[in-house]
Amino acid sequence: MAPAEKAGAAPVAHVGSAPGHVGYGSPLVPVGHDRLAAFAAGCFWGVEDAFRHVPGVVATAVGFTGGRTSDPTYPKVCSHTTGHAETVLVEFDPAKVPYEQLLRVFFKIHDPTEIDRQGPDIGDQHRSAIFTFSDEQAAAARAAKQSAEKAAGTRFATEIAPIGPFYKAEEYHQQYAEKTGSHGCPIRVQLDTL
Questions:
Q1: End-to-end Cα distance, the chain
Q2: In whole angstroms, what is the distance from residue 131 CA to residue 124 CA?
Q3: Strands 57-65, 167-168: parallel, antiparallel or unpaired by DSSP?
Q4: What is the pLDDT of residue 173?
């Protein structure tokens, strides 16, 4: 039995691991007609695992963005001196999953009211943020946040900002849940409900 099946989630269809030809601060370029999205919602292991279960997502990678340093590593980001957030870069096929659906998943899998934390994970690297690749994504993100706030009856701490350089995290962080069978960074919903 595969690790995802043990956890009660549907097996992950083949999802790649190099969205936008991700590197360490290099330009991001999706394949063909695919698009890119980037989300920070706490520990990136669980967030990446959730997005890898969304039909239409073709590749994911975890890394760091939104900060002020050009050489972030996991230990440096955890020191709270870089300003970077643990972020999941998602490449998706917009013919199979619209960006708005990815936004709904984002708001569903974490608590957007928490400031600089998610559950037991505390620090600015665990903040709620949407990093956008276009004015259209920014407008969609603002509309989704406003709609979700209205439905929840409260304000969200979620930041919305243009993507800056994205720095891929160390290899042992990539697709962590699939490699280990551990879903140690909890998300708020069952994976098979995405």
A1: 21
A2: 15
A3: antiparallel
A4: 81
Please identify every residue annotated as catalytic. 43
What 3 state SS string does 16-64 have? ECCHHHCCECCCCCCCCCCEEEEEEECCHHHHHHHHCCCCCEEEEEEEE
Residue-wise pLDDT for 64-100, tens only, equals 999 998 889 888 988 889 989 989 999 999 999 999 9
The pLDDT assigned to 186 comes to: 62
Distance in angstroms (rounded) separating the CA atoms of residues 84 and 129 = 11
- CA distance readout (Å), 181 to 41, 175, 188: 20, 10, 18
Neighbouring-strand partners of residue 40: 129
Q: Which of 8-12, 138-142, 187-191 bottoms out in mean pLDDT, i.e. has the lowest?
A: 8-12
Instruction: Report which DSSP code applies to 174.
Output: T
Question: Where do the domains of the chain lie?
Answer: 3-97+161-180
Nearest to 87 by CA among 126, 121, 53: 126
For residue 93, which amino acid is it?
A: D
User: Which architecture characterizes domain 3-97+161-180 according to CATH?
Assistant: 2-Layer Sandwich (3.30)
